[in-house]
What we know:
This protein is mainly beta. It has one domain (2-484): Carbohydrate-selective porin OprB (Porin). 11% of the residues lie in helices and 43% in strands. The chain has seven helices and 16 strands. Strands 1-2-3-4-5-6-7-8-9-10-11-12-13-14-15-16 form a 16-stranded antiparallel beta barrel. It is globular.
Amino acid sequence: MFRSLVALASGLALIGAPGHAQQLVPRTVEGAGGDVRTSVAQPETTSQASGGYVRSIEPALGPLADPLGLRATLKPRGIEYSLTYIADLLGNPTGGIRQGAVVEDRLNLRLNLDLNRLVGWEGATAHANAYFIHGTGLSRYYLGNLLDVSVIEALPASRLYVLWLDQRLFDDRLGLRIGQQAADTEFFVSQTATLFVNASFGWPAITGLDLPSGGPAYPLATPAVRAKYEPGGGFSLQAGLYDGDPAGANRPGDDPEAQRLNRTGTNFRLHDPALVIAEASYAYHTEANSKDLPGTVTVGGWRHFGRFDDLRFDTMGVPLASPAANGTPRQLRGNAGLYAVLDQTLFRETGQDDEGLGAFVRAAFSPTRSSLVSGYLDAGLAYKGLFDGRDTDTLGLSVAYVRLGDDARRADTDMIAFAGIAMPRRRAETVIEGTYQAVVVPGFTVQPNVQYVVCPGAGIADPRDPAGRRIKNAAVLGVRATLQY
């Protein structure tokens, strides 16, 4: 099924090839997720940039901005490249499995090709993105929590991330995209939430923990077809068909083994059960000089067509915790969920359209029995230009909450009953984050942040505690530097 639909999309994309030229309407795409900007507090730099609106440090470099004249030569020909470097210094002075500090960084290279300028292919663009990842993850080695404290945390690797062709059709209202893609830059996105450092404010933990290999999201993309229709009036509809397992690990969650199985990002898997994601959005009060406050409301959902291990019972219906179990989980069909996102500007500075207070709320529910996480909620506030003389700085406060599914919690109850030993029963995890993104110059930011993790691992037992008590709540201090060129 997946291969057939990929072939169909390839044929549709060729409608826009030379010989089918059309008059295109210029698009205004400045917000995270590839939509029109409605969050007045969207930060100047973001690690979830989707290839749209990106500030560059180039104007501040003077004669060093383009020393070989490469950019000036390539851009008129339709070839543009950009680099983003992010470095995190993070430590947990209290709580977690153990205390420590890490340094991790990521270099991101992007290449965009305007195929109209290059070869006369009207409405077509190509895009490639590669990552060079270094360092050690604080969540994996020190905290043991579910909501990773850094959006760039991953195993060290040099990998191709995305590689796709995009074709605009029907007066630029329909976009078809085919190739290796990531869902986390287009679906389930909040423009305001991109300010925050914790990974769950990008790709929420409910999808990252319930879908095989963490789903098509950093650091693993997968072959896909995506269609997006924008009829006007602020409405947009989009749907994506993805190979359902970017690494072939055949198990849910952000497992390091999945990253090792697709270390270079070039597996290009096509034979796994499919994952479908679809959403509808409405952006309001986006007209120029509108006196009303803009916002976006989004509803969507996903469906995975593969098979998943039962969290509680074996193939004979015996609890896996029982000594009589055969050790092989029974198979469950599929995984699915629904979500909603609200981005709303609450206050706008007088005479400014990009300074003020914004808010976001995201909620998701996955009722399927294969889901480790059944409920997710995050929310936050961000204010851009709060302090005099610091008009481009952004201050934010947010919270994320993840609740484990009933079967996962009952499996813990089974383990306690059969083992006859008192041990924690997992339930939920919460993280609170405060951050301040200071713009040194456009394209270069320094961002201190503080996070507090409540019930790391949803209340799992500390593997280093002989008494088997829960992992202690953890305080995380950090600073991020981001450079975009």
